[in-house]
Amino acid sequence: MTEEANGIAHPGTPAQAWATLMKGNMRFVESIASHPNQDAARRASLTDGQHPFVTIFGCSDSRLAAEIIFDMGLGDAFVVRTAGHVIDNTALGSIEFGEEYLDVPLIVVLGHDSCGAVTATKGSVETGSMPAGHVRGIVELITPSVLASLRANSASTVNSMVAEHVKQTAVRLLEESPIVAAAVASGKTAVVGLTYHLNDGRAELVHSSGPISI
Fold first, then answer.
1. Secondary structure of residue 202 in the 3-state scheme
2. Up-side HSE of residue 112: CA atoms within 13 Å toward CB?
3. What are the phi and psi torsion angles at 81 (to 5°)?
């Protein structure tokens, strides 16, 4: 851990960032959140720059507010969100920005139970009917994950499909971004995939690439 100007410990390695993230989620689950880094001093310390310890690439769902479920505050997380956490050039560029310009040591792909985008994709696969407008593009990007889940288990549930989609998204980050792949290969960064359980607030690890063990 390194110390920022305001005396707040900052995780500097993938393992430290992972431990900090999971401790925050545990506080949230146990209803003992400390709401760190949300005061005036923290706000003032960030006027000249930011040093987040985690990039969170998550679903846009309103129930998936990253700073809340991991008990974080201002300047802690660099957050990128799309419906169904689908990768496009803008999302990938945003994640790469976190690596190239902010030296973020941990990237999280964050899915969740009962994901509406995955549910819509499951319905399209089952019926052959595609949604209208640009939602179609989201469904097309999630379809390979749904099909992979069905191949593994023909009775696969939406939540099983979510876990598969999280895994595939995490793998695709390394495949499609030489910047992220190089950071993971050097040990500078780790990529993890988590599924968030709506009923108890717990974030469950379903995939990891890179050093997250202390």
1. coil
2. 27
3. -135, 135
Domain 2-209 fold is: Beta-carbonic Anhydrase; Chain A (3.40.1050)
Rounded (10°) CA dihedral 56, 62, 63, 66: 20
**The tokens 């023909």 sit on which residue?**
154
Beta bridge partners of 10: 2
Q: pLDDT per residue over 137-183, tens digit each?
A: 999 999 999 999 999 998 889 999 999 999 999 999 999 999 999 99
Q: Which residue has the tokens 């851990």?
A: 1
State the number of CA atoms in the 13 A half-sphere of 110 facing the CB: 32
Domains in the chain: boundaries: 2-209
d(CA 197, CA 111): 9
Supply φ then ψ for residue 35, to 5 degrees. Answer: 50, 55
pLDDT tens, residue by residue, 6-22: 334 678 899 999 999 99
